[in-house]
Amino acid sequence: MATILKADKILREFKIGDGNTVTALKDVCVDIEEGQLTILRGRSGSGKTTLINILGALDKPTDGEVVFDGKDITKLSEKKRDDLRRHDMAFVFQSVALIASMTAYENVEFGLRLAGVPANEREQRAKEALTRVGLEKRMYHRPGEMSGGEQQRVAIARAIAHRPKIVFADEPTAELDTVTSLHVVKLFKELVAEKGMTIIMTTHDPSMMDIADKVYTLEDGEIVGE
Ligand SMILES: Nc1ncnc2c1ncn2[C@@H]1O[C@H](COP(=O)(O)OP(=O)(O)O)[C@@H](O)[C@H]1O
Ligand SMILES: [Mg+2]
Asked: Which residues constitute the domain of residue 75?
């Protein structure tokens, strides 16, 4: 297994209003292997979002290195980090950010358009991704006409249609019931197994741990178990 993403001795401090600093992450090291599902788990406030944002080049650490595909991405310009996110990475968030006036198909197709995928490829890629997540019969439904689990699957289809090297999912199941949550995680696992995708997700739900290839446990900003 090759390491695709590595964080080394990450420190993330936030300055807060009263002049004090909060240490959200301290001495955090993680190795993300290509073609695996990695889970970052921990209670609310343990540092999961801070860590996944740093891994996904959405935020920079106060200290430490983040190496993606052999490059320290903390040293890249904003423009290069932006390009990296757009071409190699995809994101799925807790509250699904779909466009309400667009159908499932249009939401996925629009994501591909933003990513610069040529028009003649977009239709096939969007339909293939929606079919892969089991939404072939919901392609022309708008978000308001779908359940929470279906909407989250549209967001996943949008992420995978992109064919990123890596998918980041921050608490993608937090607003779903237990059964639907398990379906989403199993879908991630299948995408890893079939397409060799690399997926990192955060959760505070302990019932999903046995599905992951690797689990890092965070407590008060530190990795306490692997
Ligand atoms: N922008 C910020 N400013 C100040 N403190 C922050 C900020 N973001 C996160 N924190 C603090 O860092 C800690 C970890 O937060 P977070 O990464 O959101 O945890 P989790 O996602 O596990 O719930 C918390 O104590 C939180 O209050
Ligand atoms: Mg969080």
From this structure: 3-99+163-225
